[in-house]
Amino acid sequence: MIWDREAECMPEKQRQQLQLDRLKAIVSYAYENVPFYRKRFKDKKIKPEDINSLSDITKLPFTEKADLREGYPFGMFAVPRKEIIEIHTSSGTTGKPVVTGYTRRDIELWSQVMARALSMAGATSDDIIQNCYGYGLFTGGLGVHYGGQKIGATVVPISAGQTKRQIQIMTDFGTTILTSTPSYALYLAEAVNEEGLSRKVKLKAGVFGAEMWTERMRDELEKRFNLHALNIYGLTEIIGPGVAQECLEKTGLHIAEDYFYPEIISPETLEPLPEGQSGELVLTTLTREGMPMIRFRTKDITSLTRGVCKCGRTLVKMSRITGRSDDMIKIRGVIVFPSQIERALLEVKGVEPHYQIIITRPHHLDEIEVQVEVSQKMFSDEVKRLEEIRKKIEDKVESAIGLRVKVTLVEPKSIPRSEGKAKRVIDNRKL
Amino acid sequence: MAQLRQISIFAENKPGKIEKITKVLADGGINILAISISSSGDFGVIKFIVDKPDEAKDLLIKNGFTVSLNEVLAIELVDKPGDLHRVAVALLRCGINIENAHVFVVNERAQSYLIVEVEDVDEAKKKLANEELRFY
Description:
The complex is a heterodimer.
Chain A: H1 5-8, H2 12-33, H3 35-43, H4 65-70, E1 86-89, E2 99-102, H5 104-120, E3 128-131, H6 139-151, E4 154-156, H7 163-174, E5 177-180, H8 182-194, E6 205-208, H9 215-225, E7 228-235, E8 240-246, E9 253-255, E10 260-265, E11 279-285, E12 296-302, E13 304-305, E14 317-318, E15 323-324, E16 329-331, E17 334-336, H10 338-346, E18 355-360, E19 367-373, H11 383-401, E20 406-410, E21 425-427
Parallel strand pairs in A: 3-4, 3-5, 5-6, 6-7, 18-21, 19-20
Antiparallel strand pairs in A: 1-2, 7-8, 8-9, 9-14, 10-11, 11-12, 12-15, 13-14, 16-17, 18-19
Chain B: E1 5-12, H1 17-27, E2 32-40, E3 43-50, H2 53-62, E4 67-71, E5 73-78, H3 83-93, E6 100-106, E7 111-117, H4 121-127
Antiparallel strand pairs in B: 1-3, 1-4, 2-3, 5-7, 6-7
């Protein structure tokens, strides 16, 4: 199912021309209409006329989340507030929320990219989409809603929670597409199984995102729900969900690069990296009217692969997000992401994602201790078994990051819980 | 004959752990009949025989401990020299490997049990069926 064949399967050369035309236009537009960009460009002695090729984009300054907070609430808007017809904000766990404003054309753009995304998951006007993403200031709910309506599917705007009701609707209505966070989907799958209703579920695909997840979770979801578990990517600053979506090939997420221009940079040097190399994703909105974003640093770590996909699309593919550049740590010269360690320890049966990474430098070498809470599931009465589990976790982590770590088993709930994002790394090195 | 069950609790190797656990059991009116501790560096497993194992397990889980309840073999011992040796001979003859063991005394030493942790309690019992051993 390809929603916009012309755009999604466009030959690469032709698309590059389109991207360049749009890039030139958006850079002028941002310069003319947003004082923030004008000032930043002037500081770097850059004029919109200096952009003559796609690679010239590297001359432009980056935009970061902090800049958006600085401009709170409407400082990044490129149009008078009355032309904004909808506003969303990010959660704001670490300070002021980030505000994003949509003009009518931006909402149409959002609907289009979400229609593409849902079509990649096989959705058509025949489908019933049970949308468990939260409706409200969070972009997840309405993003899926607009896309679902655009393709003419039946959207059930249920949001998350009320598990009993979710299951009742899923089985009575015959929901075919589930949109939710992967962790909530797993929870639903368990509940469906407990009620003995697995056979009544008619799901064919799940569009899962808004949090980091793993191939192991994909296997689990596909097994339990007998569906295609697909990855969706997006962020409030750019538009919300719909920036990228996996097709049924499951070999990466197609970025809607005719609207959102992607670059991969080294989070250390900020220089562009060659294709295929893993680094931080930087996005530029090529057509946003309400709030254009020039070289926005997403902090998400991924890599890009070009070429024609088996599905027929030529849109560049990004790999599953493997970490965040803001929690990247360097240990003995090796770059390590907490998410790599998390994935490794979750491979050990019974281990739950309650852990903390403590880095010290007792002498001259960095040492890593990973504290893992002992769950009811992994506990046996034998010290010997626990020792085996501890060693197994150490081995898994070593093969994932290439460094030997010390795993310590700790009591449940002894690692502090935080609302919002957990503090995973404690760096006690005195450098 | 009821099977004897032993409660095991995961604990970090830090002062005050037994105090916390025994407080939960005391407040819950649970009587401790025997205790043993096995440790491995940073952590250990504390094991109890109690009068109300199911209740104790629920209470401990509710209080945030990681707990498991397992069947153990409880072989009666008589308070006289050589009796533990008699039991050990029987275990050896039947090829039973002891994972862990401790003694649980009842009735002022007149009667006690050797608590033996094995891989498979039922199988061990079958193997020991012809030995002159008395179980809990």
